[in-house]
Specification:
about 250 residues; alpha+beta; Triger factor/SurA peptide-binding fold; four-stranded antiparallel beta sheet
Length: about 250
């Protein structure tokens, strides 16, 4: 899906969820908002002043941030009510999920990745960012099973600093979180979706996997339960949000 269309769909979904939270009278108190912000502040090891300065750097006031947190809490409560509360975890379902996702529960597995960096200026214009995203989407579509580094030269030859190359092998947790999640869910030869960073747009391709054997289910049952619940939550959420959209008669035109 086009990244701009994906962003638009996300905004539409958030608006629909906010409207549904209002309709179902989902409320949070000021204390719950304050406690959540305090928890986030402590987790990030920031003083209130540092948090306010960080928000200012993104163009947000503290009051803006409080409203965002309030919306997030309402959305979370609504989704817990209409989605997560309907999930029943059975032993046989866990075993089936574990067996069909063994690649996610391998010990000492490592992946070899190549990457392409499509640089962006510090404050890109909308046209600059759209242009880079189009290049990234072309590479993602055509990069499966092809010379990945060569595609950087083919598609991004006019971009100063654009490069592509082998980064070697990595175990889980050795990459930054966004790249780590992407790398370990890709198949060998598959190119992941573009990832936005401070430097620009990064695409990665898994070129090899090695090592690893399945960890017995009884040793990682809690993790499998979380993964299964997340999977079911996502599936039920998509069904629920689709019904919300159908009920709202939304048509997206670009």
């Amino acid at each position: 899906m086009d990244l701009r269309l994906r962003a638009l769909n996300t905004l539409i979904e958030e608006k629909l969820i906010d409207q549904e939270a209002t309709r179902q009278r989902i409320n949070v108190t000021e204390k719950q908002v304050a406690d959540t912000i305090e928890s986030i502040r402590k987790e990030q090891r920031m003083s209130k002043k540092q948090l306010e300065m960080a928000l200012e750097g993104t163009g947000l006031t503290f009051e803006d941030y409080k409203r965002q947190v309030e919306k997030g809490l309402k959305r979370s409560r609504l989704i817990n009510r209409v989605v997560k509360s309907k999930i029943e975890i059975k032993e046989e379902d866990l075993r089936t999920y574990y067996q069909t996702h063994l690649e996610d529960y391998m010990a000492d597995e490592s992946v070899r990745i190549s990457h392409i960096l499509l640089p962006l200026p510090a404050n890109p214009t909308e046209n600059q960012e759209d242009g880079i995203l189009l290049i990234a989407e072309d590479i993602m579509r055509t990069g499966q099973g092809k010379d990945f580094a060569g595609l950087a030269h083919q598609y991004a030859k006019d971009l100063p600093g654009a490069k592509g190359g082998d980064l070697g092998y990595f175990k889980k947790g050795e990459l930054v979180p966004a790249l780590d999640r992407m790398a370990f869910r890709l198949r060998v030869g598959q190119v992941g979706e573009p990832i936005r960073t401070q430097e620009g747009i990064i695409l990665i391709k898994v070129t090899d996997r090695k090592g690893g054997s399945p960890i017995p289910l009884d040793q990682i049952k809690k993790k499998v339960e979380r993964d299964y619940q997340n999977s079911q939550t996502e599936q039920l959420y998509r069904q629920w949000i689709r019904k919300l959209r159908e009920r709202s008669f939304i048509e997206v035109k670009l």
